[in-house]
Design brief:
Chain A is about 0% helix and about 55% strand. Chain A has no helices and eleven strands. Chain A has about 110 residues and is an all-beta fold. The chains are: A mainly beta (about 110), B mainly beta (about 120). The interface of A and B includes residues 34, 36, 100 and 104 of A.
Chain lengths: ~110, ~120
């Protein structure tokens, strides 16, 4: 049972344009959502997060939008740069003592120069 | 800040042997460490959660006798793959959260360890 889903395995965008990565979830108990960037053979690096009580969080070129009624979040990167090319994972956190993160399957973003 | 290291970065071992992977938090005290494995082109799957000084909590389907986790100090956790078999070949990643971090819920990840069992 995949509780966090990224339905697009890959995305190709031209440099300077907007990249939109999507993520859907099923569990209403998640209290935080996080986006991580990952290069091959490396650990994920944290990009941006959003609390379940917010609908938008912005940090520089990265903005995350949360639609709780649709159980959907998205990461916008604008303008996209070739260095943004990587696999992007969304993750959802269970609240409480466990602090477990459930990861989506990832989306490979390729930014073309 | 918030650097997590793993050692070794890659290891090749023969079937039936045991392999130990170390995960260290270098500049903060990790009250909780997590161990994940990732198969090619798949998501990170949580294997277990360990709190310093207590037994690890394993996810459903993960054999605790095969994947031994020790979190003996606030800066070190180890994962030992016992009697490794080729199907244990994978990319193992640890993460840590703990004291002094700006975001209490955030996990910082190590660079991962590529295990190949021949």
């Amino acid at each position: 049972d995949q509780q966090v889903k990224q339905n697009s395995p890959s995305l190709s965008v031209q440099e300077g344009r907007i990249s939109i990565l999507n993520c859907d979830y099923t569990n209403s108990m998640f209290d935080y959502f996080l986006w991580y960037k990952k290069y091959p053979a490396e650990g994920p690096t944290f990009l941006i997060s959003i609390s379940s009580i917010k609908d938008k969080n912005e940090d520089g070129r990265f903005t995350v939008f949360l639609n709780k009624s649709a159980k959907h979040l998205s990461l916008h990167i604008v303008p996209s740069q070739p260095g943004d090319s990587a696999v992007y994972f969304c993750a959802a956190r269970y609240g409480g003592a466990t602090n477990k993160l459930i990861f989506g399957t990832g989306t490979l973003l390729a930014v073309q120069p | 800040g918030a650097v997590v290291s793993q050692h070794p970065s890659w290891v090749i071992c023969k079937s039936g042997t045991s392999v130990k992977i170390e995960c260290r938090s270098l500049d903060f005290q990790a009250t909780t460490m997590f161990w994940y494995r990732q198969f090619p082109k798949q998501s990170l799957m949580l294997m277990a959660t360990s709190n310093e000084g207590s037994k690890a909590t394993y996810e459903q389907g993960v054999e605790k006798d095969k994947f031994l986790i020790n979190h003996a100090s606030l800066t070190l956790s180890t994962l030992t793959v016992t009697s490794a078999h080729p199907e244990d070949s994978s990319f193992y990643i640890c993460s840590a959260r703990g004291l002094g971090l700006a975001l209490s819920y955030e996990q910082y990840f190590g660079p991962g360890t590529r295990l190949t069992v021949t």
